[in-house]
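User: Can you predict the 3D structure for this chain?
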Amino acid sequence: MLQGKLEPEALEILFEKLQMIKTDEGAIYLVGPINLPVNLCGETVIFKWYCWLSHNHVTENIQDIFDQLSSENLAECQQSSVLVYGDLENAEDALIRLHSICHTGDIFGSEKCDCGYQLKQSMKKIVDHGTGALFYLANHEGRGIGLFSKAMAYVLQENGYDTVEANESLGFVDDSRNYDDAIRVLKTLRTKPVKLMTNNPKKLEALQNAGLIISGREPLWGDKSAFNEKYLKTKVQRSGHLDEEGDCLND
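Assistant: Here is the predicted structure, written as structure tokens:
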């Protein structure tokens, strides 16, 4: 835990980089942009990185925010963030990815899912497109059931269950993810229409219900293997994901 007051110089620096977004439950505190050099396919790409924290304490006083958060162990809490490329605020066309955290796929490179592939591919597509944002969403592990529950679901999957059956057998719904905070942050960073990179119609619906104008959708299929073939088919056949690869998931 941190103690004491922010130094005046630090307070002045943070004042330029911290903003508050009011919500029905409290506020979202958004810090950034921060220049983040990323090794993407062997090339260094400079993204602008933001991180946000949802909190029930509402204040625009930075010292007050610091006093509130310094008494909490934020290392034990998940926080979401977003990588921005190009002029997200003003560009006429922007490519957006809402990516759910996947410990096994994103970090370890697991082939049981396609998450790691989608993460890197979406970053590359955003850079190639010229403008966009990748939202990396905490508390979405296992479609919202958490990492430990996901591990138990994997045990069931190794015994013949598909992803939907495994989640439901543990007492969860197939997909409990919530995109409200990410959408609030997106609205803060951009007011113009967005093109969403997804196969999941629930993400499109979430943005549309929040009043965002969707200019289009770009599919993100790939990295099919013997390890995730059933997983990908279940996405389409049971979770309603949009298959635009013809027979590749149904052969």
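Residues 246-251 have pLDDT under 50 and may be disordered. The chain has one domain: 8-140+177-237.
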